[in-house]
């Protein structure tokens, strides 16, 4: 356990013995820095683009909940959805590009698209209703079950 690895060279030496950890790193009391001879040559040859790709691959990607974007019912597209909900929301068909975009937009993103406050609330309200099962243009309320 208290032996020095042969394939590594040390920058600074101390009198405290080196300890090999399970993660194959070398540690001392003074945190002696260790250089591997193989890595020195490879680090200089790495391209900037490779480093960027490596950093990008480590970023956590958002996982979309399947209930966040519901399937289309009755052949409704994002354009027809905006027409059916009313209040002149059909004017903004060209600003919203896809079905997925319609169901993932937040208020601030709609504000950047220069959609008025009342229409933003109306669109986001109908998006939530559609997730719950309502269909625009087919009546605004589900019929409640009568108690007998």
TrEMBL record:
Domain Small ribosomal subunit protein mS41 SAM as annotated: residue spans: 78-133
Arranged from A to Z, the UniProt key words for this protein are: Mitochondrion
- A Pfam family of the record is SAM_Ribosomal_mS41
Q: Does the keyword Mitochondrion apply?
A: yes
Give compartment(s): Mitochondrion
Does Mitochondrion count among this protein's keywords? yes
Q: Look up the domain of life of the source.
A: Eukaryota
Gene Ontology terms, cellular component aspect?
mitochondrion
Q: Which family does it belong to?
A: Belongs to the mitochondrion-specific ribosomal protein mS41 family.
Protein name as annotated: Small ribosomal subunit protein mS41
To which species is this protein native? Acrasis kona
